[in-house]
């Protein structure tokens, strides 16, 4: 990058870690003249603020708005190639300074917030067995990842990630009541990909390992029988209307702790 500075350098993060962000900041310090573009799946307001304070040229949330990305690259090319006039450079800067697409998404009016939350919860229920990215769900709902997070916190009292994790644990508890399903199968059925991590997380939230939880059910109820449907009683979600509570109970059994 020092010998032949590129038009721009792009850093892509699925889930930014401390080392990766430190590398990005170091690259900016060493080659300050090269614009840095940051692409991330795990978007948050604090991460975006950190990026711009670190003098990142632009910030994209996956799935990337390709049209805007190409427009930014075109702008950088026009700014950095000396054959263009100062007038062309000023025009390019004005194009670049448009409000990002993520910020232009209209936040839902009060009347359709619950409908969008319903859509998000339905998607979670249908794909609980696999990795679910917040940006993916947000796109389905016509929101940015930040707007989806605000919506979950407002209507459920939890962040999107907290809701998703608790839903996985609740489903694991239901499946563990079935003696024909192994703990390993339960782990993968609720979206975990590492048995030891699943065990630690389950114990943190339930107070017992999955095996101990199943044994406790056996002691309490005798011989376990397969559980069908998952229509167990749910706790109340504080601060919600009766209509919203009914929707949440339908899509997310046992959300409340």
Can you describe what's shown?
The protein is mainly alpha-helical and 257 residues long. Helix content is 57%, strand content 5%. The protein contains 13 helices and 3 strands; from the N terminus they run βαβαβααααααααααα. A 3-stranded parallel beta sheet has the order 1-2-3, with helices on one face. Helix 2 links the parallel strand 2 (36-40) and strand 3 (58-61). Helix 3 (66-80) runs antiparallel to helix 4 and helix 6 (110-126) runs parallel beside helix 13 (242-251). The N and C termini lie far apart (52 Å). Mean pLDDT is 75; it is low at 88-108 and 225-257.
User: What structural class results from the helix and strand content?
Assistant: mainly alpha
Query: What is the strand content?
Result: 5-15%
Give the terminus-to-terminus CA distance. Answer: 52 Å
Global morphology: elongated
Number of helices: 13
Low-confidence stretches: 88-108, 225-257
Rg (C-alpha, Å): 23 Å
Write down the secondary-structure element order. EHEHEHHHHHHHHHHH
